Amino acid sequence: MDLYRLYQTRRSIRKFKREPIPEDDLEKILYAAQRAPTDATAQMYSILRVTDPELRKRIAHLSGDQEHIESAAEFFLLLADVWRLRRLVEHRGGRFGRWPRTAAHFAIVDAVLAGSALATMAEALGYGICWIGGVLNGIREISALVDLPEGVIPVAGLCVGVPDEDPAPRPRLPRALVVHENRYRAYTPEELDEAYAAMRPITRKGDWYRVLDRYFAEGGTMELREGPYQALAARKGFDPDLPAPLAEALTARGLEARSLGQLIEEAFRRGYRGVLFNQGAVWLEKETEAHRGEGATPGEALAKALLEAFPEEA
Ligand SMILES: Cc1cc2nc3c(=O)[nH]c(=O)nc-3n(C[C@H](O)[C@H](O)[C@H](O)COP(=O)(O)O)c2cc1C
Q1: What pTM value is reported for the model?
Q2: pLDDT tens, position by position, 236-268
Q3: Ligand 1, atom 10, residue with closest C-alpha
Q4: Contact of 77 with 83, CB cutoff 8 Å
Q5: How many domains does the chain contain in total?
Q6: N or C: the chain end with fewer CB closer than 10 Å?
Q7: Number of other CB atoms surrounding residue 60 within 10 Å
Q8: H runs (alpha helix) in 36-188
C-alpha cells in the first residue's frame, strides 16, 4: 500500500479475529523491525514474542486487563536492551562503560524504532496493530515473568492481528502546535483551546481533558507508574546513582530502591535522624545506633548502610 494512504487511514485496532498470521508475513514483519535504523548499529533492543497463551493471559491482566493482548494473533514485548551489547563487549575482553541514562535513552529509541517499523510493515500487509503502554502498569511482575536480565527493561507491548473492527482514524493536534521553525515558541491560550477542539472527537463525552486528566494530572495513571518504573530501572542498572545488585538486594529486603533521594527519604521515614555523606562513605544515625556504608558513589554507600541497618526479612 502507498505509505501516504496508509498513514491517512491507519488506526489502532483493539478487536482481532482469531486468525493466525502466516509465517511468510510474520517473517516480513520481523524483517522490517530489524531493518530499522539503530544507534551506532548497536541494536540496543530485543523483541520478545509471546506465544504461550497462559503468559499472554497474565500479561493482559497485569497490563490493566486489556483483552486485545490475548486475542491478537501476535503479541510482542519491545525491550530496551543493553545486556546483549554488554555481553558482546565483554566477550572480546572490553570493559563495559558506565552510561546508565544514555543507555536508557538510546535503547528506548532503538526499541521504538524497531517497533515502529514492525507495526508499519504489519499495517502495510493489512493487519491491525495496537501499542500497549499498559505493560508499565505491571512492569515489575511482567519483567520477572519473562526473566529479563540486568540491562533490559520493557518499553511497550505490540498487538498484531487480523482486524475485527473498523474504527475511524483519530484526530491529531494542529500542525502549528507540533512543528516549530528554528525556535521553540510558547503556546497562546487560544492555541491551547484549538488543541482541545481538534482532539474533541477522541472521547465519547467530547472533552479531551478527561483523557489528559486521567493519565497525566495529579493522581493519574502516569504517577502510579512512576515508582515501579524507577525501581525497575534501578534494578536493571539504568540509575546513575544506584548499582543494580544493591537495588535488587534492597528490594529483596522489602525496600524498593528508586533513587538516591528516595533512599534518603526512606532512611528518615525509618527513624534515622541523620544521613551523613563523606567521600566514599555514609553514616546513617539515630539516637542509639549508627550504620556505615562505603561505596564509590553516595548511592552505593547509602544502599550498603541501609542494607546493614535493615534486618533481613523473616
Ligand atoms: C506508547 C504507546 C502506548 C499505548 N498504549 C496503549 C494501551 O496500553 N492500550 C491501548 O488500547 N492502546 C494503547 N496505545 C494506542 C493509542 O491509544 C493510540 O495510538 C492513540 O489513541 C491514537 O490512536 P490511533 O493509533 O488509532 O491513531 C498506545 C500507543 C502508544 C504509541
Answers
A1: 0.94
A2: 999 999 999 999 999 999 999 999 999 999 999
A3: 132
A4: no
A5: 2
A6: C
A7: 25
A8: 53-62, 67-71, 83-91, 100-124, 139-145, 175-178
